[in-house]
Each structure stands twice: as structure tokens, then as C-alpha cells.
Design goal:
With 213 residues, the chain is of the alpha+beta class. The chain has two domains: 3-147, Enolase-like, domain 1; 156-212, no CATH class. The chain is 43% helix and 29% strand. It contains seven helices and seven strands. Strands 4-5-6 form a three-stranded antiparallel sheet, with helices on both faces. It is elongated, with a radius of gyration of 27 Å. The relative contact order is 0.12. This is Single-stranded DNA-binding protein. Pfam families: ERF. It comes from Paenibacillus silvae.
Length: 213
């Protein structure tokens, strides 16, 4: 596979990540969760991601804390780090195959020494999420997939098998949609792949019962 094909395979691996980590006021998807979801497939396909800082910028903002009388009780400095970066994908099977993507990261720190690390973590996480079009949502994965049509739908092979099993049991094909509507509240072609598999197994079971009767 070329580098583009490999990246598509990685993108297929994770269509959705739940915001399962909890902050003080909101839920979020942690950096380790994003990397863990993708790293195994990247290793399997031989893909390397090399980050490079092209332009670091540090902003210092003094902050004063005052009491009710307006007297300064404490002075601190907030350090805001901005990193202009290049994220480079490399195909380990053919290192000359590379894709370079301009990117950006930022991090806020009070002490000052952790700003770059925070900015790099921010950049890496959001690069992965946005490059691979990974959705994050507070819904559980199954609800999200159903809502956004990410569930695999019934395929032609399943449709053909269902029709053959149905008519083989002596039922009329026009009544097939009535049965799926009764069981799943959907027509035959609206069934998911999972529903179709379940329906096929039920029909096979009915056929087996009929043959032994």
C-alpha cells in the first residue's frame, strides 16, 4: 500500500471517540485515549508521525490578585506558548513517501517550564482528531454511529439470502417487508448488517425446525 492508502486504513479504524475523561467543568477526550486508539494500526501499517517545531513563541502575561480594598495580594505570570509546527507522515516501507502537514499547538502554564510540553500534547491530539476526521461526542458510540449513519447497512448478499430463505419457507416475497417491519420497525433494505444477520439466523432456525418436523 502507498502512504495514502495506509492513512485511509488508519482513518477507518476509529470513526468515533467518546468524551470519557472528566475535567472540572466539562468532559473531554484525553490525549492518551486518542493515541491508544490509533497507535496499534499505525504500527501495523508501518506509519511514522514526526512532529517538528518550526516557530516557537512565548507570551508572558502578569496577573495581579487584589483584596476587597484593592490592595495587591499576589502577583504571578501566566506563560502562553504557541508552536508553529510541521507534522510529517512517513511510510516506513518506503521512507521517501512522505506527507508534510503544517500545524499549530498552544499551551498555558503558570510556572513556565511546562508550556512547550502542553502545547505539543495539544497539537498531537488535535492533529490526530482532525486529520483522521474522528468525531467526539458526549453520546455513547452506538448512539452516535446510528445518528450519523456510521452503522454498516445490509448488503446485497444478505438481501438475496433472506429472500431465498423466506420463499423457501413457503412465504410470499411481498410479505417480507411486513415481517421486518414487525420485528425491527424497518423495511428489508433499511436493516443494519447486524439486524440482517440476526434475521437470517432466525430464518435458518425456522427452516431447520420445518425440515425435522
Amino acid at each position: 500500500m502507498n502512504i495514502y492508502q495506509k492513512l485511509i486504513e488508519v482513518r477507518k479504524e476509529v470513526p468515533y471517540l467518546q468524551k470519557a475523561d472528566q475535567g472540572a467543568q466539562y468532559s473531554y477526550t484525553g490525549s492518551s485515549r486518542v493515541l491508544a486508539a490509533l497507535k496499534k494500526k499505525m504500527d501495523e501499517l508501518g506509519l511514522l508521525l514526526v512532529p517538528a517545531i518550526t516557530k516557537p513563541t512565548l507570551h508572558e502575561s502578569p496577573i495581579e490578585y487584589k483584596d476587597q480594598s484593592g490592595n495587591v495580594t499576589k502577583r504571578t505570570i501566566t506563560y502562553f506558548t504557541e508552536l508553529e509546527m510541521t507534522m510529517t507522515w512517513i511510510n516506513a516501507d518506503d521512507p521517501k513517501e512522505q506527507i508534510m502537514v503544517p500545524w499549530y499547538g498552544q499551551g498555558v502554564d503558570i510556572a513556565g517550564e511546562k508550556g512547550v510540553g502542553k502545547a505539543l500534547t495539544y497539537a498531537e491530539k488535535y492533529f490526530m482528531l482532525k486529520f483522521f476526521n474522528i468525531a467526539t461526542d458526549k453520546d455513547d458510540p452506538d448512539a452516535f454511529q446510528a445518528k450519523h449513519d456510521l452503522v454498516e447497512m445490509i448488503n446485497q448478499q444478505q438481501i438475496t439470502e433472506i429472500k431465498e430463505l423466506w420463499t423457501g419457507l413457503g412465504y410470499k416475497e411481498p410479505d417480507l417487508n411486513k415481517q421486518t417491519a414487525k420485528l425491527y420497525k424497518k423495511s428489508l433494505v433499511q436493516l443494519t448488517e447486524k439486524m440482517a444477520h440476526e434475521f437470517i439466523e432466525n430464518l435458518k432456525s425456522m427452516k431447520g425446525t420445518k425440515e425435522t418436523a
